[in-house]
Recover the amino acids of this structure.
């Protein structure tokens, strides 16, 4: 079998002395779409941050194409092809849309690619980041990460607080990126139904551990698992 793109082995991380992840083991194949779900505070953002190198490691390893990357700073991981769109939608509010994108540019990526994906950003290219609506800020945050040409795109609750029509537009973009085989995607979402509808595989986190995983279509139909770990029924 081909080497996984990303391989986590007994990963234990946190913030300073506080350990949050209690031993996460997970392999992700190139081209896979993974939905990472679970209640608030279970460690989803911490897991994405740990893959990116933003947390304190207490033990275990992260490997990228078979090579350990535990010693690498976040920008070095980005250069290898790891991309994170953080839950906080980190954009530069005082820079224009275009300047934000330029700040993320690497390799042969072009602004036109971003604008082709998000025509709205082209219309707004001279506007300051702080003047954008929530949906536009999220588009910019996604587009800026894509300017780094990631092979792994990690999306942390990209739909949070956005209107349904904006959510549909963003999901269509993620669908397009994944379908074109450009990226492997880890999608963290509270909207479990949308996330599992998009993904091949669903992973449920609880208190810093993986408590359930399986084909997304099966997880989606497992009412008792969803009830137990998310406290919701999805129809
Ligand atoms: N920067 C931080 N410093 C200390 N503790 C944090 C920090 N960020 C998150 N935590 C704690 O880590 C735990 C997991 O948080 P998080 O990964 O954000 O959960 P989720 O994304 O699943 O909602 C929570 O108990 C949270 O309070
Ligand atoms: Mg989070």
């Amino acid at each position: 079998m081909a080497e996984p793109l990303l391989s986590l082995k007994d990963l234990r991380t946190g913030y300073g002395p506080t350990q949050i992840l209690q031993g996460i083991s997970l392999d992700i194949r190139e081209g896979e779409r993974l939905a990472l779900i679970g209640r608030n505070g279970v460690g989803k953002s911490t897991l994405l941050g740990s893959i990116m190198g933003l947390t304190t490691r207490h033990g275990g390893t992260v490997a990228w194409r078979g090579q350990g990357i535990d010693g690498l700073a976040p920008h070095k991981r980005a250069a290898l092809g790891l991309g994170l769109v953080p839950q906080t939608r980190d954009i530069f509010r005082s820079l224009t849309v275009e300047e934000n994108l330029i700040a993320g540019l690497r390799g042969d990526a072009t602004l036109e690619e971003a604008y082709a994906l998000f025509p709205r950003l082209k219309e707004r290219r001279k506007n300051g980041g702080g003047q954008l609506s929530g949906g536009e800020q999220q588009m910019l945050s996604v587009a800026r990460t894509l300017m780094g040409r990631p092979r792994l795109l990690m999306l942390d609750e990209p739909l949070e607080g956005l209107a349904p029509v904006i959510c549909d537009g963003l999901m269509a973009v993620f669908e397009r990126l994944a379908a074109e085989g450009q990226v492997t995607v880890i999608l963290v979402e509270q909207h479990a139904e949308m996330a599992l509808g998009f993904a091949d595989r669903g992973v449920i986190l609880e208190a810093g551990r993986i408590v359930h995983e399986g084909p997304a279509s099966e997880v989606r139909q497992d009412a008792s698992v969803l009830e137990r770990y998310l406290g919701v029924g999805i129809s």
About this structure: The pocket of magnesium ion (ligand 2) is lined by residues 44-45, 87, 156-157 (CB under 6 Å). Residues 164-179 form the longest helix (16 residues).
